[in-house]
Amino acid sequence: MEKIQFSSWVCPLPLRSYPTVVMGHGSGGKMMQDLIEHMFKPLFQSSVLDQMGDSAVVAIPTNGAGSTRLAFSTDSFVVNPLIFPGGNIGTLAVHGTVNDLAMSGAQPKFLSVGFILEEGLPMDTLGEIASSLAEACRDAGVEVVTGDTKVVNKGHGDGLYINTAGVGVIPSGVDISPQYAQPGDVILLSGTVGDHGMAIMSVRQGLSFETHILSDSAALHSLVACMLAVSPGIHCLRDATRGGLTAALNELALASQVGFEIEEQLVPVNPAVHSACEMLGLDPFYVANEGKLVAVLPAEVADEVLSAMRDHPLGRDAVQIGRVVADHPGVVLTKTSIGAMRVLDLPAGELLPRIC
Amino acid sequence: MKYLDEYRDGKLTRRLLKEIAETVTQPWKLMEVCGGQTHSIIKSGLDQLLPPGLELVHGPGCPVCVTPLELIDKAIALASNPNVIFTSFGDMLRVPGSSQDLFSVKAAGGDVRIVYSPLDSLKVALQNPDKTVVFFGIGFETTAPANAMAVVQAKKQHIENFAMLVSHVTVPPAIVALMESPDVQVNGFLAAGHVCTVMGYWEYEPLAEKYNVPIVVTGFEPVDLARGILMCAKQLEQGRAQVENAYARSVQSAGNLPAQKIINQAFEACDRPWRGIGVIPQSGYRLRPDYAQYDAELQFPELQQISPEESELCISGQVLQGIIKPNGCPAFGKQCTPLTPLGATMVSSEGACAAYFRYGRHEQVSQHLAVQALD
Questions:
Q1: Average of pLDDT values for B311-337?
Q2: How many domains does chain B fold into?
Q3: Taking the CB of residue B45, how many other CB atoms lie within 10 A of it?
Q4: Domain ranges in chain A?
Q5: pTM as predicted
Q6: CB contact under 8 A, A337 and B10
């Protein structure tokens, strides 16, 4: 059969004609990708940035021969509400950055924390969030070594924003990059999808519905360490945050210029998340996670890695969901429940609940 | 999920598909009326598994898609008014108006809020007595009862800072318009299960008889859809044209009477323009004179000056009538994408163009998918 050039589907997208920033530019979907591709990347011109890993990997020459490889990442947290079932903005600020480092295979070491506080934020709330943040750091074995505090006028912030940046050390022999997926590799997923996003939506103002969904917010570096202990040859890791599983798979397929094929029925979804998504007309594959990863690795080591994941509390529900192919580079296909195939495309912008 | 997973069962769907293949002896064109059904069909790939000759064409049942541009522009004008809090179902926010969308209005400082129920808008009105809270009341017979309830409650509770921008549409007049159109050739209809849950299906019986066309009330999951298609195909093969119910777990002939009562209390039928199609007689609801005080178009008379400009490239009217498929449009996937939509059908979660784009039904890829599906 003639090979299909998937890359020529559409004309190169112009920067959307929005004269101002809209919420969709931060959704983790195509609009955000577009903004980064067309505005930021050309301005910052960095070969490290161009790799578009969850964290940057930089080599620092050591005194003797060779070098130490560091993972470096930053993330800002603007979640509303500040406290949600299963966590708060403080725990999230630690887990988010720790996970970005872990996706390079790094052992996270140091964090910076920047607080942007809105005038009028109750001290009790700040205390609760700061102590959760401290506890999450202790649990993850990372140290906050520098920080910053700013206060903005009432009405100029959402109570509290946090930025964290982190540094981790990549063990020798580990070389993970979004560009390393190869035909023949298998795709593993560490557990259920959609929990974090639906936990947030369940308590968001004006949208409350009765449910017991907890955010899956968790630091994944110890899970990654267990996986690397079994096989250091893992090709790609991605935590499936904004844009959900779909964004993680698409970003890896695109970066490696290979095709991904998964089976949608193999992807575990918590029944309460499934119900909430049905009610709102959302697809759990597109809903954010804060404690789930996608791994791409050679088929030979898949069983061992999968069993190591299942032995870890954060990987109990780990499954193989698909494989990497040479066809349709940059495109993710999924087998539907009735056995047909369809494209699993990046979301455009914000997730919008349906009308009826 | 109980009562849902059963209707997504792959084996049962394939068994029904086999029966469909054994039933069909000649080409038939079936139209699924509702955009929710279109998305389910394209998402599951059901259409790829039908026998050759049995074609599904996609109907006008996407409320966002058929809301006239004029109403979108009015919504944008209202949302830009600093004395207004504009509330809407989320799906409407990305629909392009003549020059911008509601997201842009929000970015420019307009108070635009997504709600899940019009009753939530009433709460916003109570919390913000110094602002007028406008709700964008769109949809088919499915959303009409809750929207009617909102104005009835507003009057009961003497909430005066509330208004509704109404653009309701109804299904049966659209079926009449499609059957009367010389361009539309549809042999059978899959009627929308949730619309019939509210309205029943007695309204469809005279239509099936007059136009000699089978109409099967159909649900939204692959098993439901396959069963609806099978029942419709059997009627066609046997030369029958009746109304049948393939969604009996939700739909009764008379429908939901209390829901119909509240609709009739607040709304009356009116002529309504459908975006891309034109005015269909008696195909909409407007507020009854008793509730005129809540009509946003009367509360804000300056809206009458709005004159919309439709994109010349968008031919979504033909898509909404099943005359062409989305990937048959020259602008599809080129000038028109979900990020650069020319029409509402590319935006809405129920729009046929959005379904084709999202699930990768570009012309070349379709063939690739079809080949894989057979493997």
A1: 87
A2: 1
A3: 24
A4: 186-343
A5: 0.84
A6: yes
CB-nearest partner of A355 from B45, B63, B340: B63
CB B285 within 8 A of CB B172: no
Instruction: Residue B267: give its domain's CATH number.
Output: 3.40.50.11740
ipTM over 0.95: no
Q: Is residue B303 part of a domain?
A: yes
Whole-angstrom CA distances from B135 to A16, A261, B118, B151, B165 are 28, 43, 7, 10, 6
Instruction: Flag whether B375 is in a domain.
Output: no
Taking the C-alpha atoms of residue B141 and residue B196, their distance in angstroms, rounded to an integer, is 8
Enumerate the β-bridge partners of residue A56: A72
- Tell me what pLDDT residue A154 has: 93
Environment class of A313 (CB within 10 Å of its CB; exposed 0-12, middle 13-18, buried 19+): exposed
What's the rounded Cα separation, in Å, for the pair B35 and B350? 4
State which residues form the domain around B260: 1-369
Question: Alpha carbon A84 to chain centroid distance?
Answer: 19
**A186-343 placed in CATH 1.10.10.10:** no
Residue B93 has pLDDT above 80, yes or no: yes
d(CA A334, CA B358): 13
Task: Kindly report the average pLDDT of chain B as a whole number.
Answer: 91
pLDDT digits (tens, 9 = 90+) for B265-292: 999 999 999 988 889 999 999 999 999 9
Closest CA to B137 of B294, B302, B345: B294
CB–CB of B143/B284 below 8 Å?
A: no
- CA nearest neighbour of A73 among A42, A92, A96, A47: A96
Residues 6+ apart with CB under 8 A from A234: A105, A174, A176, A227, A228, A295, A296, A297, A301, A305
The CA distance from B44 to the nearest CA of chain A, in Å, is: 5
Q: How is residue B111 annotated by DSSP?
A: E
Domain membership flag for residue B374: no
Q: Which of A7, A204, A336, A345 to mutate to test the interface with B (most CBs of B within 10 A)?
A: A336
Contact B44 A206 (CB under 8 A): no
